[in-house]
Amino acid sequence: MDGIEKQVVEILGKIRPYIQRDGGDVEFVKFEDGLVYVKLLGACVGCSASDSTVYDVIEQILVEEVPGVIAVEQIF
Fold first, then answer.
1. 66: domain range?
2. Which of 29, 76, 19, 23 shows the shortest CA–CA distance to 52?
């Protein structure tokens, strides 16, 4: 795991408790060409707010905090 991936995993670890509080979870899948791929689990699957969780929360934080991250993509 390279430096960017480690930073992503560390930040997801800080976000995870807030997602778990609502019965969901987030899993890091891979980092490739500036894109972070994540999978939502638990209550997040099929939730109407899942897009907001990925793009308005996770993506915003990772793009701001981790140099080299340009976007987040959700894997289903």
1. 3-74
2. 19
